[in-house]
């Protein structure tokens, strides 16, 4: 087992994930594991970084597949005895023009973005070493979705005492209500699936941080959600104002918080600052 420190980035074969991996390869004092659902694309991304003089490792990872997640968990445990930095970047978003039925979009996006990220955390958070850093990449679109929810749902999702089980129940209910065509009647936004999955991740981050403080307070593990802003990637499109290099500033800042840092912890961070739970339209396209 190596005593080398290790950082792992999910969804890292392109876009924001690849840019985060590149920067960590330059700045993180240890190994960086680039993961991707598609092995060929992941290995191509590794070769691209190797051509730049960097040395990431590769491991296949599909965050919607528990066997795949557990294979990564076992690899980290066997090779490194744990994990120092986890960046949960993997996620999907359907284009508005996509003709796939709304209910299928809702189910697939929630399964990947919220439940996939939750499964990763369930399996890998127990591996986090003291002074570990966890970064859940979310989005300000989550607050747009939150503000479109009924007051009752907003109160539940904003609650600082909501449990993981309650949150999972709400995310499942959103999908079920969407399937049944009653999402608006039940108080959900009518057209912001991606945002709902991301407010789920932001709320989950608060819960996870609270658990870490209760169960492993002395280990000083810091876990946060962050918004990179609107970034020029396949997902963000060519009109986005930020380059990937600008978009990764906050995720990398949180991943590399110094070992003696007291915080932030359990926060939503934007532009390297703790931000309020509200939509910031100046950072996003008009919709």
Question: Strand fraction band?
Answer: 5-15%
Q: What form results from the Cα inertia axes?
A: globular
What is the overall number of helices? 10
Radius of gyration: 18 Å
Organism: Odocoileus virginianus (White-tailed deer)
Keywords: Cytoplasm, Lipid metabolism, NADP, Oxidoreductase, Phosphoprotein
Family: Belongs to the short-chain dehydrogenases/reductases (SDR) family.
Enzyme class: oxidoreductase
Write structural notes for this entry.
One of its GO terms (cellular component) is cytoplasm. One of its GO terms (molecular function) is 15-hydroxyprostaglandin dehydrogenase (NADP+) activity. By secondary structure, this protein is an alpha/beta fold. It has helices at residues 15-27, 39-51, 66-80, 102-124, 141-147, 151-158, 164-179, 193-216, 244-247, 249-255; strands at residues 6-9, 31-36, 57-60, 83-88, 128-137, 222-227, 268-270, 273-274. An 8-stranded mixed beta sheet has the order 3-2-1-4-5-6-7-8, sandwiched between helices. Helix 3 (66-80) runs parallel beside helix 4 (102-124), helix 4 (102-124) runs antiparallel to helix 7 and helix 7 packs antiparallel against helix 8 (193-216). The longest helix has 24 residues, at 193-216. The radius of gyration is 18 Å and the shape is globular. The N and C termini lie far apart (51 Å).
